[in-house]
Amino acid sequence: MKVLIAYLSYSGNTEEVAELIADNVRQHGIRPDMHEIGLDAPVDVRQYDYMFFGTFTWDKGSTPDEFKDFVLEIGYKPDNVAIFGTGDTQFGGDALFCRAVDKLAHFYNSRWSGLKIEQSPRGTQEASVKQWTEGVLADAIIFA
Ligand SMILES: Cc1cc2nc3c(=O)[nH]c(=O)nc-3n(C[C@H](O)[C@H](O)[C@H](O)COP(=O)(O)O)c2cc1C
């Protein structure tokens, strides 16, 4: 099974979530490909069975432009995408917290609810990342 983890991260929080997801995926004997949006060369997403896309939220609940460019670069809506992201409730409270995750999960009609992490996932939130990843992988493994 081929798995892609693509993420956008400025200050490292979303990258940390991506790495934790990758650790969990590896525990299932699957070697995920990592793609850092905006830095790595364009990736052909059609080769992947399952994909994890992650981003932080910006500017009053917005999806960052680099992530929008990535969406346009893909050019179609794959139906095998799980969305994760980080945010901070200090920027607009619950209404704007990780809004990009909600928007992208809706855009991709994701069959998994998005994973929202407040800032760094290290510590208590690490368990949430693991639990969410296991949920996605359970479906992936059943349907593989
Ligand atoms: C100018 C600015 C605006 C932000 N706006 C939001 C927001 O609307 N909603 C939210 O949940 N987080 C917001 N954040 C918080 C970031 O999404 C959060 O710090 C995130 O973990 C950064 O991810 P990164 O470390 O992967 O770059 C904002 C941060 C900055 C600096």
How would you describe this protein?
The chain has a single domain (3-143), classed as 3-Layer(aba) Sandwich (Rossmann fold), CATH 3.40.50.360. 38% of the residues lie in helices and 19% in strands. It has 5 helices and 5 strands, in the order βαββαβααβα. It has a 5-stranded parallel beta sheet, with helices on both faces. Strand 1, helix 1 and strand 2 form a beta-alpha-beta unit. Bound molecules: flavin mononucleotide.
Q: Can you list the ligands bound to this structure?
A: flavin mononucleotide
Structural class category: alpha/beta
Tell me what the CATH architecture is.
3-Layer(aba) Sandwich
The amount of helix comes to: 25-40%
> What gyration radius follows from the Cα positions, in whole Å?
14 Å
Pick out its properties.
single chain; Rossmann fold; globular; alpha/beta; 144 residues; 38% helix; binds flavin mononucleotide; five-stranded parallel beta sheet
In short:
The protein is α/β, with parallel strands linked by helices.
Task: Give the topology.
Blueprint: E1 3-7, H1 13-26, E2 33-36, E3 50-56, H2 65-74, E4 81-87, H3 93-96, H4 99-107, E5 115-118, H5 126-143
Parallel strand pairs: 1-2, 1-3, 3-4, 4-5
Bound molecules: flavin mononucleotide.
The site of flavin mononucleotide has 23 residues, from helix 1 and strand 4.
